[in-house]
Design goal:
There is one protein chain. By secondary structure, the chain is an alpha/beta fold. The protein has a domain of 140 residues: Nucleotidyltransferase, domain 5 (2-Layer Sandwich), CATH 3.30.420.10. The protein has six helices and five strands; from the N terminus they run ββαβααββααα. It is globular, with a radius of gyration of 18 Å.
Length: 208
């Protein structure tokens, strides 16, 4: 079978050019511990980068490389954070949206429109907003937001690992791996675990 030499097309910078459109995405929604992070990014019109893509499709080193490029070249960018305690109080969907709103609040340039990865969002101020399923693989500003949210959250989970080393957050970043759940079963939850989540499967449930 012949191999294709075609280079994958680069993502367009945004959905609507010329309106300072902010792309938003979150990271850490499915984790058992730690905050949920979101980012908002406004890229220059015509911005492109051959590596820019959904953060889940990139290696850690590629994400780190792109983070530096995005933070240097974006018109504006910001990160929003919602703690595990807040997640337990309002639920993870609302927390993810709140994190995106906080990221938008942090932008030094007011966007003219907002696009969001996924299919759920609540209006932000009076700006036109639109959701796109798998938007982080379709538009550069959402992909950039996914990279910033992921890299900033991973950095924080590595820091938190030094405070609670029993759970392996430096490696699992708070996601529900077997080793993470085994550590919860052995040590009980930390103050940074999301108590509204099912931390353990039924066969591992203990009183804590």
């Amino acid at each position: 079978m012949a191999m294709s030499n075609e280079v994958p097309a680069m993502l367009p910078a945004c959905h609507l050019a010329g309106v300072m459109e902010a792309g938003c995405d979150e990271a850490g929604r499915g984790c058992l511990a730690g905050p949920v992070y979101a980012a908002a990014v406004i890229l220059p019109d015509g911005f492109s980068h051959p590596m820019l893509n959904d953060s889940k499709k990139l290696s850690e080193s590629a994400r780190d490389t792109l983070r530096a490029v995005i933070e240097a070249e974006a018109v504006a960018w910001a990160v929003g954070i919602v703690s595990a305690k807040e997640i337990d109080e309002i639920n993870i969907l609302r927390a993810s949206i709140l994190a995106m709103h906080r990221a938008l609040d942090g932008l030094e340039v007011r966007p003219g429109a907002v696009i969001v990865d996924g299919n759920r969002f609540t209006p932000y101020l009076d700006l036109p907003c639109r959701t796109f399923v798998k938007g982080d693989g379709r538009f550069g500003n959402i992909a950039a937001a996914s990279i910033l949210a992921k890299t900033h959250r991973d950095e924080e989970m590595r820091r938190l690992d030094s405070l609670y080393p029993a759970y392996g957050w430096r490696i699992n970043k708070g996601y529900p791996t077997k080793s993470h759940r085994d550590a919860i079963a052995k040590h009980g939850p930390s103050p940074l675990h999301r108590m509204s989540f099912r931390l353990l499967p039924p066969e591992q449930l203990t009183l804590f």
